[in-house]
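The following record pairs a protein chain with its ligand, manganese (II) ion.
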Amino acid sequence: MASEYDQLISTIKAYHKDADFSLVEKAHKLAVDAHKGQRRMSGEPYVNHPLRTAITLAEMELQLPIVIAGILHDVPEDTDVTLETITKEFGHDVGSIVEGVTKVGKVKYRGVSRYVENMRRFFIAMAADARSLIVKFADRIDNLRTLESLPPKKQYRIALESLEIFSPVASRLGMGEMKGTIEDLAFQYVYPKRYDYVKKIVQQRYEAKNEYINTVMKIAQKELKRSGIQMTSMVGRLKHLYSLHRKLEKYDRDITKIYDLIAIRVIVPDVAQCYSTLGVLHNLWKPLKGRIKDYISQPKPNGYQSLHTTVFAIGGEIVEFQIRTEEMHEAAEYGLAAHWHYSEHEKTSKIPERHKRWIDELARVHKEMVKGLKDIESIKLDFFQSRIFVITPKGDVIDLPEDATPVDFAYAIHTDIGNKCSGARVNSEITRLDTPLKSGDVVEVITDKNRKGPSPDWINFVKTSIAKSRIRTHAKKSISDWIKGVLPKK
Ligand code: MN
């Protein structure tokens, strides 16, 4: 088997032929020297770990400074070589990424407050250099891949933390591929029995359906070609194990309700052809009612775009199709990381708007955490829940947790609007204030300027921590006003 270093070189060559390989060599040398004598728990030389981290980054076809930072990511923390030396030898870019990784540091498990600690570290790293989070995820992937040489207690702790913290952050940054990899690696250590079970069903289903899916793809390809659609690719894609597990839990473990175990992914050159492809497929096979999803005109909050449809294909069997352009595909797989993809024409390094919004949100959560730890559970849930997006009458998009209500929406816009909220119209219809909102709802808050403040009952149905804390603050204030009112005046 080729050494880690040889594998790294060939992985870089595959997408970046004229990379500065002398710099890669120099980083390799420095890492070998710095980690000399250090070993992993498995007994192998320590340096294999940062090299594998760099391979993961190179497999994502990222720009060279990120890959080099992968090689050097543990040097300042674990060896005598300083960050200054790295910056001097490899430039500011590499130095800044490694610095960020060092700041995320070795995350330790400490009960509830680990969330605070982890989020704080993620936030600091993110603010310093968002690229360091990508390196940190690649680092975590190798640690999960080599977890078997650790004692069981530690395996469980690291795996659980990956599911609870790393995976939601990767998800919010749209890094679907890394999220799936991290979850599937961690799954077997956290829920070993469920893992075996899910793995077995996937294998059985795959064996039973593989040939059928191939036949469906052949027919679809022929029909698309006949209709003049220039397909880039069509592949059958198995669902990630952990995401299947989550879905099974949601559907009472009924595998027959899971339609996307194997989905057929169609990639076409542009948006217009995405919709034409949908039309051709629906003309060929009848779609299932309520299963057509247009995430192109209404992207998911993390930016995911695609058309999804489920059809009764040949013999009436149910098959899901996912249709997207190459750019949408890249964004879905790599998210934030897609932004630092290497290309011969260097892109400008500006972080996309939705990721910037997420960083702002992280900053807000961070601030609330610093203020007080008591509401940590609600902040945690709020932050990691699935999100919906709701639209103001002016067309602004507000990002909220699932099942948020018009009151949450009102407080997300402004504290005063929340406090004076007396009713709501959802999609032009008067709606109760505790109605759960859905993605795409247009919501208008009706305010009453004479209203004194929020109703204390709202606390029972609001979902966001911001609404809860505003309602509580108000309740406390009105009680103290009332006490002041009944106390004899001096
Ligand atoms: Mn490491």
